[in-house]
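Changelog-linked ticket: heme C example.
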Amino acid sequence: MADAPATSPRRSLLMWGVGGMLVVLLMAAGAYALSGVGARDNTAGVLRPDDPQVVTLGARIYTQHCAACHGARGEGQPNWREHGPDGLMRAPPHDESGHTWHHPDAQLIAITKYGLAKLIQQPDYQTNMPVYDGVLSDSEINAVLSWIKAQWPTEIQARHDQVNAQYQKSPGR
Ligand code: HEC
């Protein structure tokens, strides 16, 4: 095939793509500059996704206690949006495609430690999600959730920081 002329639709599409990337990069740089130092503000949270020691411990706990249901990399069970044969919810992903990061730290800890039934105040709620009170210590629960958070893309981690900040401000918590 002969070389395409410089103005072929394919080439201009490519140029547009490069231009679009530049715009996205510039916007990201702007947001970065606006956010001050460019670091995430995790001060409202108690999880420590930026602490390598905590995250390493968390990875071990995750593999041992959570991966069987939530998947080795937090991808969740297949068809997790549908109920399982037992009529109960399947284990959802903990990665950015899931709902985990919509919960502030305090709720994630409460779900893991005391269970969903307690959090939603429905003692009869049937679920396959275990209760880890007495199984994992508070620092182990913090570590495993910190590992989960450390797997999220930086942007999702930053949004989760905001979820924490918002939660801290909410009067009814
Ligand atoms: C036996 C299977 C199983 C194991 C093991 C398990 N989970 Fe779950 N988990 C579930 C299921 C099922 C749900 C969905 C529960 C529901 O909504 O009824 C869930 C939900 C959750 C949620 C709420 C997610 C959301 O989007 O609201 C969190 C947080 C969670 N699990 C954390 C953990 C952690 C941390 C571990 C390991 C320490 C763990 N789970 C181990 C089955 C499991």
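Closing comment: Example verified and attached. The domain at 52-168 is CATH 1.10.760.10 (Cytochrome Bc1 Complex; Chain D, domain 2). Residues 65-66, 68-70, 89-92, 98-100, 103, 108, 111-112, 116, 127-130, 132, 144-145 surround heme C (CB under 6 Å).
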